[in-house]
Amino acid sequence: MTEDTGAAPPSGGKRAGGVQSIDRAVAILRCFDARQPEISLSELARRTGLSTSTVHRLLVSMVENDLVRQSADRKYRLGPLVIRLGRSGGVATTMREAALSIAREARDEADETVGIHELLPTGHRVVVDQVESHQELRRTYTELGVQISIVHGAPGKSMLAFQPAEKREWWLAQGIDQKTPTTIADPERLRDQLVEIRELGWAYSDGERTPGIRAVAAPVFDHTGAVVGALGYSVPTVRMDDDRVPELGERIKAAAWRVSATLGATAEAVAETRERAADASP
Known about the structure:
The chain has 10 helices and 7 strands.
């Protein structure tokens, strides 16, 4: 199996199961981002590995279909159709919009409450919605919209683990309130746990913020690879023994990745975020 680098196949080849012209058009679209909203024909050819004539032929069709447009200096940028699609409401733009249907499916798989957590610009997190378990004894969030420290609980730890070192260390230096007897208040101990969370891709807590509740959570990333929130199972301790922890951890990790993909995240961008977070130098 060949690695998908995001570029089109060489001009003489065709990806198995793909449509060559579509693959090549997508490769061109992937070249545009906030750092380079305008790109020349020759640069597009260089980035995609296609000939200049092939790229020009594709661009003519893409301009006709409003996928790209040509500026006065003969460079290209994304076209009005792409912008309309992005703003039409058919594409999720918020954490809650992207997560809600996936959270319902995750709830149905385990019949446990799923919380949707959003990371705020302040570095705190909030619960923006929940999908409750059908069981009589269940976790119900009562603090929707209330700011919560990122150092407390599985959802916060899953987000903190993927923060750049300087942000992570700033939070650890603020001191950690001992919310419950099991709260991890020692920064060094929490720092070690964050390394493990990055390796697993999900976090775990046992009554660290709410007594009697065990939780697993996984981070959600946006199109830039930045952490924007988390999805988490929150379960009464009596229904979550040690054997169930990794099972639900992997389930929520898969669900959170689906949310990330809905927000435009790619494996490559998230890998870069993980690498930056693993850098121990604040």
